[in-house]
Amino acid sequence: MHLFINCLAASSGSGLTYVHNIVPQIAARPELRATLALPSKLRSSLGSPRNVSFVELDIPAGAANRFFWEQSYLRRVVQTSAADVLISAGNFALRRSPLPQILLSGNCLYTCTDFYSDLLARRAYRVWLDTRIRGFFARRSVRWADCTVAPSQTFAETLQSWVEGRVVGIHHGFDQETFFDDDVVVPPAIRNLIDYDADVLRLIFVSHYNYYRNFETLLRAVPYIKERLGDRRVQLVLTCKFTEKDSGYYKASSARQLIRQLGISHDVVELGAVPYSVLQHVIRACHIYVTAAYAETFAHPLVEAMACGLPVVASDLQVHREICGDAAIYFPRFSPQKLAERVIELDQSLALRKKLSDAALRRSRDFSWRDHLDQIVGLAQRLRRSSFEYAPAA
Hints:
CATH class of the largest domain: Alpha Beta
Distance between the termini: 26 Å
CATH topology of the largest domain: Rossmann fold
Shape: globular
Number of strands: 13
Number of domains: 2
Structural class: alpha/beta
Largest sheet: 7 strands, parallel
Order of helices and strands: EHEHEHEEHHEHEHHEHEHHEHEHEHEHHH
Strand order of the largest sheet: 3-2-1-4-5-6-7
CATH architecture of the largest domain: 3-Layer(aba) Sandwich
């Protein structure tokens, strides 16, 4: 089986996570071959597996430019690869693909009314328009692909209701061995920012800054938590910084201003990006994982936090319930008061913390990149076997 995987959109976030985890899994399976199209800057971090070849390409900026470039130039690259199945791993599919095609779709913002409303409220009209354009192409991509794979069943059902097409849910995985590599030292610049005092309740949220992770609700919950804790302190640890340089596409000025207005500058720790090898130590230094996201398709940090045994307080999204199950307690996504209540409920109940922690450890073991690849390969094999009936989507 020879897979051609289009990873050109893997520039950050879950896209990078996917590529860095799927390549070692392919390398461990000699019966597989893979050709990866990817940005040049990503190549050096992936080693040189014998059964994986790389095509380094630099794509034009902008959703529309990237889309039309892929439809022309990338098509020719795919045609000459002699691969059996094309896997398009960036929300956009090739129209009239020369190979049976699996589309990996992982962006729920195209279908999220909360996100569009949020953008209008922030007057982020450029982001609104860019998301609409990307959504236009993403919607057609589901129709063009022979099968679309979503990283959760919740998002698969959303896509199925959004556009006609064959959509299946296959969970992303988690590599326990890589994540818990203890041969690292936490940099002093990170360690010195975390208050390890026994009288501090430490909360953590792992994400770069964006709008749909709903940082503002998380920040507004801090004063309510402080009020309930009395003399004890709370520390909200974040793996981002609220600067324009670090937030890029999204403007963090509202979050910076909100911190000043709420008077919580000393309670919020902006670590910035944390190396993956250090992340487990940062998570384990905290007591509760919190997320107020109003849009999500899978959320790798939830699995990482559960693997560390942290109880989770999560916004009440169906995808959060699918991923966490009984390892979390939930609150309405735009209610800082309810978020604070859930945090205090956990803080005051050792029995509840232990119950959720035990459930978190069990649940984290259900996610495996090996199982993910098994299901993707099985799907590719079924498409290849039916190639005598295969006709590119219109």
